[in-house]
Amino acid sequence: MSFDPSHPDRQRHFYESREHDHLRSRADDYYADRLVARLADAVGMQAQHRVVEIGASFGRFTFPLLRHCQSVVAVDISERALCELAAKRDELGIDPSRCRIQVADARDLTRAEISGAVDFVVGFFILHHLEDICGTMAAMSKLIGAGGGLAFLEPNRRNPLFLMQVLVCPDMTWQEEKGMFTLSARGVCRAYREASLRVDKVLRFGFFPPQLINRFSWARRLEAGVERIRLFEPLLPFLLMTAAPPDEPGDVLVSRTRR
After folding, report:
1. How many domains does the chain have?
2. Residue 2 domain flag
3. Which of 2, 49, 140, 176 is the most exposed place for a label (fewest CB within 10 A)?
C-alpha cells in the first residue's frame, strides 16, 4: 500500500485547530472508564504493567488507564494535545514518570523512545484515522515484550449512531472520520496477522452513547441486558480486537472469542 506523506500533517492540523471537547478528560466519565475497563480485562492488564497508548490525544482514556497499570506512555502526533494532557496530569497530581508524553507518528516509534519494551500497546478510536494500519501494526509489534499484546477499540461500522455523531459533532468532519465506515474487524485482524501476531479476541459490546450512559443508572442496567441478547451482537457499537505474539512460530490464526 502506498503511503501519502501529507496524511500525518493533515491529522496534526485537524487535532491542533479544533477544541475536540469530546476527547478531553473529565470527572465522573463512566463511559471512558467502562471502555478502558473492558479493554484492560480483555488483555489481563495488571498493576505492574507498562502500557503505550497510541493516539492518546487530550487524555480522555489515558487517566482511566492509569488505574489499571503501572505507567502509560501517551503517544500522539499532536504536540498541542499532549501538552494539554500533561497539564491535566500535573493538575491531578500524577507523577510524570507514570504518565509520559511522546510526540510521534506511531509507525516511527521505537523501543528506545519509550525506554524499552512494554507489556501492552493500546488505542481507543485511533485505527480508523490511520492510512497505513499494516505498517503501524508492524511497528507496534516490535514494542511489546514477552507475554505482552496489542488491543484496539474501534467503532463498529454497522452501528448507525456513529454516522449521526459525525453529522452533529462540530469537532468531527467526514474527511477525517470516514475511515470508521470502511475499517472492519477483518481488516484489523489481517493487519495483526501481517505483523506476525496471533489474533486473540474480537468482542462487540455497549449500546448507549455517553450522553445517556454517563447520566442515568437505568441506561447502564439496560445496556448490560442488551449486551446479552445475541440478536443485537452484530450491531453493538464498540469493537475490541486484541492480539499477541504467537505461541509457536507461524501460529497467527484467529482465536475468535465472544463476550
Report:
1. 1
2. no
3. 2
